[in-house]
Amino acid sequence: MRAATRDGLEGLTVLHRLSASEQREAAWRQGMATLARAVVDERRPVPLEGLDPNALLNSMEVAVQGGYVERLDWLSGPAAAAALYEVAAALPASATKRKLGRLVLQRLRRGDAATFVAVATQLALGSQRALGGRSMRARVALALSLPIGTVASADALALALISRHELSQDWLRIPATGSLPSRRLSARLLERAAREAARRAVEGDDSGIRVFCTRPVREAWDRLLADRETLVWRHVASARGLLASSMPVFREEMHRHLDPEFTITEFNVVDRNDHVATLLTDPRFKIEHDPMPGAADSTIQYRPLFQRPLTVRAN
Fold it and tell me: By the 8 A CB rule, do 277 and 247 touch?
């Protein structure tokens, strides 16, 4: 962790040592702003690890008594909720920990979509039971169903849900064998998780890519990609295209499915969306196969999901 970040976070452990209220509030604001940036913007894991838990507890008792924990309007909703969650998680068992936990729960239930997704992502990484219940599952499903880009951190939530064995069982593997709405949600979950994994891969972080190499995820992936319903397989096809630049096995699969012997139906079912996703995320990707049957001259027509038609010329 960078020294500037560490220095800012240490301000959260010294409030009880400061005599002037202005100094305490300044240290509080600096610490919470640094913590929020580390969690929401930089997505750094366990940013408070290494700090003295007893000093943090004494400092948070001062923050609670001074009303600082309830006056966080100067931070965005997602940032405030995420920072409070991290502080509560780092505290030892105490009344202050329970107080902060209740405040986080209030923000989870009453906050907007961005706030809910930010807290749900942290809960998915730290607690299996927190995302149980019908109402919670419905809100998670709604967040994943929002148009891409509406809530930026929804992709991180999707990746968190398939990263842990227990949550992957509940959110991906079992629904992948269920009804059409369940299978569609599982497929959309893979697509959103692939977006986050691809984004991290560009930054040099392959932790998201490794999730898609695990056997349980690949089994659900293969089942959903082979689904007969367009509402299901198209999301997995897009996910494969997003990951193709980082996972050679998917790139080889896509090239293999461009075999001229494939019928136009097989081509449409397997590769329309994943090739477009790859072209949009990796400009270096080139189609080196002959045009598919039905394509005029040497041009292959693609129509990616939720975007205007795109024409790609085969070399």
Answer: no
Helix axes 230-243, 264-281, angle to 10 degrees: 40
Q: Using alpha carbons, select from 264, 315, 273, 270 the residue that is nearest to residue 293.
A: 264
The amino acid at residue 100 is L
Q: Which long-range contacts (CB under 8 A, 24 or more apart) does 11-16 make?
A: 12/48, 12/51, 12/56, 12/59, 12/60, 12/87, 13/51, 13/52, 13/55, 13/56, 13/59, 14/55, 14/59, 15/58, 15/59, 15/60, 15/62, 15/63, 16/55, 16/58, 16/59, 16/61, 16/62
| Averaged pLDDT for residues 34-59 | 81
CB contact at 8 A, 91 and 60: yes
- Write the single-letter amino acid at 89: A
218 against 270, higher pLDDT = 218
Residue 252 burial (C-beta neighbours within 10 Å; 0-12, 13-18, 19+): exposed
pLDDT at residue 45 tops 70: no
Sign of CA dihedral 295, 301, 302, 303: negative
pLDDT the model gives residue 241: 87
Q: Report the distance separating Cα 201 and Cα 234, nearest Å.
A: 22
Range of lowest pLDDT (5-9, 99-103, 119-123, 261-265): 261-265
Give the model's confidence band at 224: pLDDT under 50 very low, under 70 low, under 90 confident, else very high.
very high
Spatial CB neighbours of 226, under 8 Å, sequence gap ≥ 6 = 233
Rounded Cα–Cα distance for residues 122 and 145 (Å): 19
Find the length of the chain. Answer: 315
Element (H, E) at 302: strand 299-302
Q: Which residues contact 228 (CB under 8 A, 6 or more apart)?
A: none
Give the 3-state secondary structure of residue 164.
coil
